[in-house]
Each structure stands twice: as C-alpha cells, then as structure tokens.
Design goal:
Elements (H helix, E strand, L loop, with lengths): L6 E7 L8 H12 L4 E8 L14 E8 L19 H19 L7 H13 L3 H5 L2 H11 L13 H15 L11 E4 L6 H11 L3 E5 L3 H9 L6 H21 L2 E4 L2 H9 L30 E5 L8 H14 L4 E5 L7 H13 L6 E5 L4 H6 L3 E4 L8 H8 L4 E4 L4 H5 L4 E3 L4 H12 L2 H18 L2 H16 L36
Parallel strand pairs: 1-2, 1-4, 2-3, 4-5, 5-6, 7-8, 7-10, 8-9, 10-11, 11-12
Helix pairs in contact: 2-3, 2-5, 2-9, 6-9, 8-9, 11-16, 14-17
C-alpha cells in the first residue's frame, strides 16, 4: 500500500547507528524529532560485527546491519543461489555486465549504466550475483573490455590479478542491491553512493519513493580516498568509474534531493540532478542544548571537536598550532573526539607530528566527551581544519555556544559562518595560524564574533526548522505517486559489440572453458 509518510526506511553507510559523527548526529536528531514516524534503519557496515553505539529511540521499529564484507544477518542464501548461470541466463547476465563495464571504462560508448545495474539487481535479489560476478566468463569480459585498443587502460597492461582484485571490490560494492526496502515506506538514503543501491532497486521494481540527502560530497571523497589506495591504476579506474556512474544515476533518479547547503547543490546540478528536484535543508542544532559558553579559559586555548579522521586534516591544525605557539608559548590545543576503528595509525601519526614539531606538551587528545558543549567552552577559539565537509555540526554547535571560529573553506562552511568567524583555505597552516593569532590578540573582536555567531544559529540553523522540513518532505513524497508495477523479466538488448574472445581455461585457476 502507498506510504503515508509515517514509515521511512533510512539507508546509511558507515554511520548511524554504529559510528559517532556529524552524519550520525543528524540521523539521530531526525529520528527523535519525529516520534510519530516509524523508522527502519538499514545500515551498510564493514563486517557486520560493529556494535550499535547509539541508543535507538522507540520509533526505530527495526534495525538491520547489512555488511559489505561479511555475511548478511538473518540466515542462509535464497534457494538456487549456488546454481550457476547457464544458457540464456548467462547470456543475459554477461550482456548486462558488459554494458555496466563499458559505462564505467568508456563513457564515450554511450552504454546505459542504469539498465545494466537493474539487471544485476535482479540476480542480487535472488542471491546469485556473487557467483555470477566471480565466474570465469565474467572475468574474461572484464579483461577483454579493459584491453580494448581505444581505452587508456590498455597501456597499463592489466593483469589477471588486477581483474580478480577489481571483481572482488565491485562484488562487495554491489551487495546492497540485495537489501530490500520495506513496502509502503519512503526510502531515505542519507548519502550518495552505496546507500542509494537499495533505494534505486526499490524505486525501480516496486515504485518506492526515493529521497537522497547529501552532507559531504560522496564522489569527491571517493576520489580523495583512492589517491592513497594501493591498487593499480586499472582497478582504480574501474572503481572510480563505478562511483561516478552510481552517483550520477542517484542524482537523476531520486524523487527529491536535499543537500544540506548550496555548495552541495551546485555539485548535484553539475552531476546531472534536475534543479527542480533539489531542495536545500540546512542542518540544525537546539540552541538550548548548546547555550552560551561563558568566560573563556584562563590559559589561551584552541579547541577542536570531531572524530579523529584523515578527512579532518588534523595535521594542518597541529602545524598551525606550532606556528602560533612560537609567538604565544602558553597556547594549548585540545582535541576532543573519538578515534574510529581503523584510524589508530592516524592518531599515532598525529602524535609523532606534534613531537617532531616540538609541541607535544601542549597538544592533548581528550577522546570522546559526553558533555559536548564543554569542548567548545574549553577554547578561546574553536577550530575546524577539514578538507571536506557538508554543513558541519561541530561548527554550528560552537557558534551556538558563542565562540569565535577559524575554519577551512570547504563544503557549506562559508554558508554556516557568514561574517561571524574567519574562513581560510584548506591545507594552509601558515594562513590558518595568521587568522588564529589575529583573533587571539583581540578579545573584544572574539566576543563580538561569538555573540553574532549564536544569533545566526538562532535565526537560521535551528533543529526544529530542519526536522519540520523533512517531516513535510516525507508527506510530499508519500503522496507523490502510487507504487509502480514490477517490470516483467525481459531479454535485454544486446550490445552492438563482438562477443568476448574465448580464452584459455587457465585464466582462472581451476577454471573450465565456457
């Protein structure tokens, strides 16, 4: 039956309710702010063993962790999942897979990524996609397309090892296609990328309304992340092509896109999202929960609050602090926030950097703090040094507490701050240090900026305004259109390209000719 807007399937990736951070905070605010709405949370996780770190409110009627690198919750694979594809089924799969690969690796080929993806989704829902992707014919198709004479990947001489690596990464990335969105709900993906896969499938097959919210720019962050990955270039080209095409498909297909700032909106429009289907909804905080912080600490202090993660670029913050401390030896830097699993090495690197710069005695990593407003109160100036952000909670929380801020010009930071703080370019410690020194020398200006910052939050960025916006959006989407009939299975159009060359069964250890 059609949704009334009172039932929402929230789709997350690597965040709520398993990880703390800005996006998770936003999810929790949204769920708690609408006690009349029932939420199902479908969380894409790593191995499925991640603990739930948030206390879920009563209106979260179901929570399912869907691991990308482990076994899904809830029993065995569907009947027939182990049965190999043969005959017409195999030809249909290979046609869809080749369309998808060409869309990723040869944008000029004008192949429809979406049609290939939906064909694979049918297999995923039957539990048969993993075996199909890992079959020898699929590997041969990848090797053949990778080495087409007109593609740049040919020059990199991709190997069978590259093909196995890329297949493994792609198979795990496509697993969410099998996750089912509840009938009668609104599918709300809280990021672009993999979280959109269940929503896209549910929209295509069952007509479920699809809402997409972006905080950071998912595709940009994938490109930043792959700079340091160990895979060879053909593998990176395939995976970045996948994220690019998936991002574009999500933008084109979402019934409504709700960026949290105008910066994201510009990315989305350039990525193919129709302007008429984009509505900016700013993040918000409750000013009563983040009251004015009161007097500054007696010792001049810079404070930062967030998760310890490379995207927060704490190296730049520490280098900036070291420059400021040369001028003001009493200055301290206090860093509040958790170290997510897997980021322990990054914390060690930061500690070594502080030691190398001779400022380790003034830098403290405080860990998770339950009284978040006290983290902002601990600073004379609150810092943000990220290289990528959406509309950061830590910034508007600090502003609500009446603290002056120095932050990097990324995402929606400039929209949040306006003229109530100093915004500097990212990854420039000397410029950041100059801004900090300027504020530390002028107590009256810090106080005035803090006062105006809190007023800006009260006027524009309250939690109530944000939650009310999404409450209305859920109702609109629920009544926008009736569920669509499930498309009947069909033989897809074949590509007007030759069939993959037959190769030796030795391509895959233990393989047999097709």
């Amino acid at each position: 039956m059609p949704s009334s807007g009172r039932y929402v399937t929230m789709l997350t990736e690597g965040t709520y309710p398993h990880v703390h951070g800005g996006v998770s905070t936003w999810c929790d605010q949204l769920v708690r702010g609408m006690p009349e709405v029932d939420f199902e949370v479908l969380a894409l996780t790593g191995n499925g063993r991640e603990p739930v770190t948030w206390e879920l409110p009563p209106n979260v009627i179901r929570h399912t962790a869907y691991p990308l690198w482990g076994l899904p919750q809830g029993g065995c694979a569907p009947v027939g999942a182990r049965r190999p594809l043969r005959g017409r089924e195999r030809r249909r799969f290979l046609a869809a897979y080749e369309r998808l690969l060409l869309a990723l690796l040869d944008p000029e080929a004008d192949c429809d990524f979406g049609s290939g993806l939906y064909e694979l989704a049918e297999l995923a829902r039957q539990g048969r996609l993993t075996a199909a992707l890992r079959s020898e014919p699929a590997l041969r198709s990848l090797m053949w397309i990778w080495t087409m004479p007109h593609l740049p990947t040919l020059a990199a001489r991709p190997t069978v090892h590259d093909a196995l690596t890329a297949t493994d990464l792609l198979e795990h990335a496509l697993r969410p296609l099998a996750a089912r969105v509840a009938d009668g709900s609104v599918a709300h993906a809280v990021s672009s990328g993999l979280a959109t896969l269940p929503a896209l499938a549910a929209q295509h097959f069952e007509g479920v309304p699809f809402l997409l919210t972006e905080h950071g720019i998912y595709l940009r962050e994938r490109y930043l992340g792959y700079r340091t990955e160990a895979q060879r270039w053909p593998v990176k080209a395939l995976m970045l092509g996948f994220y690019r095409e998936l991002n574009t498909l999500g933008y084109r297909k979402a019934d409504l896109i709700t960026p949290c700032n105008q910066y994201n909106r510009r990315w989305e429009e350039r990525g193919g999202a129709p302007a008429a289907r984009i509505r900016t909804v700013y993040n918000g905080v409750d000013p009563a929960l983040f009251p004015e912080a009161g007097p500054e600490p007696e010792i001049p202090t810079l404070s930062w609050c967030g998760r310890v993660d490379p995207i927060k670029d704490l190296e730049t913050l520490i280098r900036s602090y070291a420059i400021c401390r040369a001028e003001l030896p009493a200055l301290r830097l206090r860093l509040f926030g958790p170290v997510p699993a897997g980021n322990e090495e990054y914390l060690t690197r930061l500690e070594k950097l502080a030691a190398e710069l001779g400022v380790a005695d003034g830098v403290t990593f405080e860990g998770r703090i339950s009284d978040v407003p006290s983290a902002y109160a601990a600073g004379s100036v609150v810092m943000l040094s990220s290289i990528s952000e959406g509309f950061p909670f830590s910034l508007i929380e600090a502003m609500s507490c009446g603290r002056a801020t120095v932050s990097t010009d990324v995402g929606g930071v400039r929209e949040a701050v306006g003229d109530t703080g100093i915004v500097v370019p990212p990854r420039e410690p000397a410029v950041m240090a100059a801004a900090v020194s300027e504020l530390l020398r002028d107590g009256a200006r810090r106080a005035e900026l803090g006062r105006r910052a809190r007023q800006r939050v009260v006027d524009r960025f309250t939690l109530r305004r944000s939650v009310d916006g999404f409450r209305q959006i859920y109702r609109e989407l629920a009544g926008a259109r009736p569920p669509q009939p499930v498309p009947s299975p069909r033989e897809p159009l074949r590509l007007s390209i030759p069939a993959p060359r037959r190769t030796s069964a030795a391509l895959v250890p233990g393989g047999t000719p097709a």
